[in-house]
Design goal:
Distance between the termini: 55 Å
Radius of gyration: 18 Å
Strand content: under 5%
Largest sheet: none
Number of strands: 0
Number of helices: 12
Length: 285
């Protein structure tokens, strides 16, 4: 039973961590918390089932098609819901604009796909029991993503431009960095990361339109716990959340496990409002 809790907790936590990274990636260049992150994870499962199961594509081409489709959704989100808000004096309108796009995606998926959970194919056919691929694929995807992003941000010119925009977008613009193009690229990258979360975790979550709001909430908790913009903190927070949630499911079950997650979340934020790994906000006066 302990092994089952560990396996399922790490797998679900990896999905939550990837959604948290999706939040951070969009926030990096726009300072906007886009509430379409969970919908991108949901679309990863839906597109994966569509391309691999219904259309019969091999796994790798199906994965690439899923990543491209969700990257396009990320770009559309930036153009429709984020860019107009950044031009407005009241930039907090992004809460409404991104929520509107998220609801549009969810209802369009329900109409065009299905309102019932649809099966997701086995991808590699490897493992059994607690070593089944549905448990270790999300973990492997999460590890590969964080390593890839660390390399991107630290070793490439594009990644350093992302970091420059994140630290001071006014100075970055003054140096001639193409802020708009970098923001579009970051939203495309976030779409791909969200798609990978849904694709790798599809065997656990299935292809279900209602996964979007669930992933939106549980994917935001690792961001809050790990510190906004901190991908490594989001990964640690995601794994801790997954393990705690699965242990609570085993011990109390049902809705009480969600109450336990809410309680832990509130306690952590009361103790450390900036998150476990976030730095306190400082303002020069």
């Amino acid at each position: 039973m302990l092994a089952s809790i560990l396996a399922s907790g790490l797998a679900v936590g990896a999905v939550y961590a990837l959604i948290g990274i999706t939040y951070n990636t969009m926030y990096l260049t726009s300072r906007v918390m886009s509430f379409t992150a969970g919908q991108l994870g949901m679309l990863g499962g839906v597109f994966g089932s569509l391309f691999v199961l219904r259309l019969g594509l091999p796994v790798l081409p199906g994965l690439l098609a899923t990543l491209l489709a969700c990257a396009l959704v990320g770009v559309v989100t930036e153009v429709v819901a984020v860019r107009p808000v950044l031009k407005s004096l009241d930039q907090h309108l992004y809460v409404l604009s991104t929520l509107a796009v998220a609801l549009l995606i969810q209802h369009a998926t329900a109409l065009e796909w299905s309102t019932e959970p649809q099966p997701f194919p086995r991808l590699l056919g490897l493992g059994a029991g607690i070593w089944d691929e549905k448990y270790w694929l999300p973990v492997a995807a999460c590890i590969a993503t964080i390593i890839g992003l660390e390399y991107l941000y630290r070793r490439t010119l594009v990644g350093r431009a992302f970091v420059a925009i994140a630290e001071d977008n006014f100075a970055a613009r003054a140096l001639g960095l193409p802020e708009r193009n970098l923001r579009i690229a970051s939203y495309a990258l976030a779409g791909a990361v969200g798609a990978l979360a849904g694709f790798a975790g599809g065997q656990l979550l299935l292809a279900f339109f209602a996964n979007g709001p669930l992933l939106n909430f549980y994917g935001f908790i690792p961001v809050a716990l790990g510190g906004l913009g901190n991908n490594r903190g989001a990964v640690i927070g995601g794994f801790l959340l997954g393990l705690f949630q699965q242990a609570a499911n085993f011990m109390v079950g049902g809705i009480f496990s969600s109450v336990a997650v809410f309680t832990l979340f509130i306690i952590v934020l009361l103790i450390r409002p900036q998150g476990m790994f976030g730095a306190p906000a400082a303002r020069r006066v």
